[in-house]
Structure formats: structure tokens, C-alpha cells
Amino acid sequence: MYRRLLSKSLLHQPLHSVLIALVAGLASCVLTALLSVTLPVEDELEAALRSFGANLAIEPSAGAASAQALDIASLDRLGGIMWRNRIAGVDPVKLREAALPGGRRAGLSGSRWRAAHRLPDGTLLPEGLAAVSGDARLTGRWPAEDAAEIAVGRDLAAELGLRVGQELEFTIEPEHRRVRARVSGILEKSGEPGARLWMDLAAMNGVLGEPGTADRIQVAALTSPEDWRPDFDPRRLTPRDFDRWYCRPTVSSVSYQMERALPGARVRVLRRVSETSADLVRRARATLWTLAALGLLAAAFTIAAVRRASLSNRRMDIGLLRSLGATDVGIVKLFFGEALVLATAGFVAGFPVGFLIAQHVGRSIFGVAVAVQWIVAAITLLATATLACLGSWSALHRALRVPPIEVLRT
Q: Which of 50, 113, 87, 131 is CA-nearest to residue 267?
């Protein structure tokens, strides 16, 4: 009986039914496109922002100025933290000062260009300067670990008139180790002084007699925007809040887990990089969700207006059903069933169109591949059905408040 009434109700005003299904389809299309693009774009934007440099720095717990050094092999312990898959790259560095001829001084860094650290489970962790700084540009090649070679910052090379293949003599301070090295490359990197020298980390450790060590390990981690104040203390959180904070890949949560995995080291958050990245991701997310909310709001008002016009013409039907013994709950079930059928029809038509739009937008504007995500389909179907039911209820509850005798009398 219910199916017969539902089919008759759908066909009673076919134009209104088609219009509601069309609006539901448009809402499904917009929501599918925005959700499908938002999820991969956030990760892509976060990865692109890694060109700002590392957002975490692992240092000896006594402080960066201490003579204590970090054991590079301790990176193996990062394989045991929850968010190891969010670590995009690490860069162990040795920091010294170089005394150049003529009294000129420049920063000296021992690092690698592009390598991989193998974790105990066999996973390869990207390592080196290129892994944490996507904007680093090297002209020539990186210094070899078995030769006396250096890379020179662009500004320093221009100041000293150095070119690839020339030699430079300098002293590593404070150890007073004199080195004569050949320039193998010119390096340009934003966010760092261009008046700097780079040696391969293994070669620099060999000169200093400190194999397998680093003064600092820079980490580029893909993190979510922070929900808590930067200076909050996780030990003061309630167990529920602690679990919620710990299980989100925010920069404070990732740094906390890394610090617990590395005894004798402290993990410092580089706030300029992490806060800038988080702010840009937060703004992009807010923009996309605002557009989605506005689209759904417009769809809700449109459905409500169409349903109000439809039900105003069907007040006689509602009054007749009530006079024949139909309850308000039964009438609501009938019209909500009609709304759900139309919403489902709109979803079936709108979801594939929205996905195709998302693919085009993701590829042409953001440069990311958009795949079908069933969580997006579930959210879109639920939102479309909710909109249709709410739009129906806003008009239906008025019709139910009118006594049947008044409707039949007209």
C-alpha cells in the first residue's frame, strides 16, 4: 500500500518532482566536486609548502650549542612512531664556520644532497637537503664523500668570483682544520644565507673525526593545522583530549612522538615554517568548505520553496488522507519517502558529473589526480537526502497544522 501511495505521490506533480531531483543533483554535483578536490589538494598543498624548508629540528637535549652530537643511526627509532608515514624527509647536518682567506667568514654545513635512510622494517626514509627543501637548486653536482669538494652558495660564489672546478682553501672552526677543496657545484636555496659552504656530511665527519654524527637533524613532516595553542602542555590535557590530540598529525603531536622515540634529544618546532604552512592550509580548507556550505544552503532553500509550492497545491490530498484515518507520522513518512527517492535520483545523476568536474579541476588547476573516494559518495548521499527531507519538513509541518475539515470545506 505504501509503495502504491508513494508512486502516485511522485507522479502527482511530475514537474515539481523533476525540479526537486534536478536541484538535488546539482547539490550532489557541487558537493562531490568540492569534497573530491579538497582531500587530495590539502596534502598536495602541504607537500608544496615543504619548499619553505624543514618544520622540525632534532637537536641534542643539552642545546644546539653543546659539544654533544646526535647519532644518525638513531633515526631508526622514527620507524616506531605513529606518524612515520607523514615524515617527508630528514636532513642530518653538521654546522661549523669556515674561515676564508682575507679574514672572510662564512657558514659551513655538512649534509647530503639526496639519499635514503633504511628503517629497520625496510622502509626507505628520504634523506638529504633535497628531501627537506624542494626549492634548493644545484648547478653542477654535490660534493663527493670521498673527495675534497664543496658546494658554494650563490651569493658567496659571486662575491669571491668562484666557478665550478676552481679550488678554495679555508679553515674549519673551531677545530682549526685546514681544508683545500674543489668547487663542485653552486647552490641556491631560499630561506638560508647565500654566503655559505656545503660539504658532504661523511667527508666533513671524516675531516673532524666524528663519523656517523650530526649536530642537528632537520625534518620535513606533512602536518595538519594545529587545534591547540602553540605553548600548551599535553600533560595537562584530559585523557580524552590527549587521545584526540595524539591521534592527529599536527606538528606538536608529531614532535612529541619523535621526542619520546629519541632519548637524549629534543625536537624543536620551527614555528615560522609550520605556522605559515598551517595557516595557508587552513585558509584553503575554509574557502572550499565555505563554498560547499553556500551551495548546500542555496539547494536547501530551493528545495524548500519547490516543496512549499507543491504541498500548497496538495492540501486537499493531505486533508483527505487525515480524514480517512492517516496519522501525521504516516503522512510524514509518505512525503519523506518521496523526498528520499528524488534525492537518490539526483545523487545518481549528480555524483558522476561532480567527480568528472573534480578530476578536471584537480588536474588543470591544482595538478593532482583525483580518485573515487567512497567516503565522499556516502557524505554526499547523506547530505543530499538530509537537504531533501529538511526542505520537505519546512513546508509539510505547516500543512499538518491545518485541521482536515477546513481543507475539505474549501
A: 87
Q: Return the ∠ at Cα 197 (arms to 196 and 198), rounded to 5°.
A: 125
Per-residue pLDDT tens for 100-158?
Answer: 988 888 999 999 998 988 888 888 999 998 888 877 888 999 999 888 899 999 888 88
104 Cβ partners below 8 Å, 6+ apart? Answer: 160
Strands annotated E in 32-123: 56-60, 70-71, 87-99, 105-111, 115-118
Which residues face 59 on adjacent strands?
266
Q: How far apart are CA 373 and CA 353, in angstroms?
A: 14
Residue 91 near residue 110 (C-beta atoms within 8 A): no
Helices (H), 62-197: 129-132, 154-160
Which residue, 12, 30, 5, 27, is CA-closest to 345?
A: 27
CA dihedral for 140, 142, 147, 149, sign (positive or negative): positive
Q: What is the DSSP letter of 224?
A: B
CB 370 within 8 A of CB 358: yes
What's the pTM value of the predicted model, to 2 decimals?
0.60
Q: Render pLDDT for 84-112 as a digit per residue (tens, 0 to 9).
A: 888 888 999 999 999 998 888 899 999 99
CA dist., res. 141 & res. 193, Å (int): 20
Provide the grid cell at 404: 482536515
Collapse the DSSP code of 284 into the 3-class scheme (helix H, G, I; strand E, B; otherwise coil) and give the result. Answer: helix
Cα–Cα distance between 374 and 380 in angstroms, integer?
Answer: 10
- Beta-bridge partners for 116: 126
Length of the chain: 410
- Cell 641556491: give the residue: 188
Burial 7-39 (b: 16+ CB within 10 A, else e): eebbeebeebbebbbbbbbbbbbbbbbbbbbbb
The answer to whether residues 192 and 132 touch, using CB atoms and an 8 Å cutoff, is no
Domain boundaries, the chain: 2-45+279-409, 55-269
Cell of 401: 497544522
For residue 86, give the DSSP letter: G
Residue predicted with more confidence, 295 or 326: 295
